[in-house]
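Suppose a colleague, Dr. K., hands you the sequence of a protein chain of 273 amino acids and asks what its three-dimensional shape might be. Before reaching for any lab equipment, you can write down a predicted structure in token form. Begin with the sequence itself:
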Amino acid sequence: MKIIFIGDVVGRSGREALSKYIPNIKKDFDPDIIIVNGENSTAGYGLSETHSKEIFNLGVDVITLGNHSWDQKDMLSYIEKNNKILRPINYPSRVPGNGKVIVETKDGKKILIVQVMLRLFMNIALDDPFESINAILEKEILGKTIDAIVVDMHGEATSEKNSFGHFLDGRVSAVLGTHTHIPTSDGRILENKTAYQTDVGMTGDYNSVIGFEKEGPIHQFLRGYRKNGRFRVADQKATLCGVFIETNNSNGLADNITMIHYGNNPSFFSYKT
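The predicted structure, expressed as tokens, is then:
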């Protein structure tokens, strides 16, 4: 199976990058499914119903969220109407929406997409991410009940992300990090054939501080407070970052992970077994 996963979309420029580069991605990789983390798509804070529809209309199959899931209040209700928008599975049980979905590809294969939020430095009340994912994988067995499993691992600390990746190694097709908005250069296939990257990076304006105009975060670090309330999203030309995963048709494990950057100078960095 051919899987595209695109990192955190930030603001208007990030959405424009999706619109510009998804046709290139389809041509270059011919994916069976496209997954996008969209939790910063609306002015850098959350995802609105309007912008979720805009992203789906580009040919995206599933949108994941994260710690900004509810910054746009209409998502509290809209997420109940669209099961292909995912919030973390380990939010408390009464939180709206779902954290997983099974999508069937055109050739009849089934892929499970799960989002989980890690806890270190996140300052949110969350259930145990390790136990939460275990409960799912006890029912959905890679290569038996399901053809591929992709986990969006939304978290801050590289140590916790590394631990989570090794914890799932051999049980899922890919564990892909989001949230920190900086692409790490460690895209690889782990010992038991799970594709892994600590953070796939953002889709947004990199002449910024993680997608926001530089002056705001610098002011906060210097003065200890935000000058204008929320930071303003940077809105110049964006780079699209993500990964391409190829899985083995017999067992669902990863044969290849390719880190992808589309911008002024598109680049691809591949790791194969």
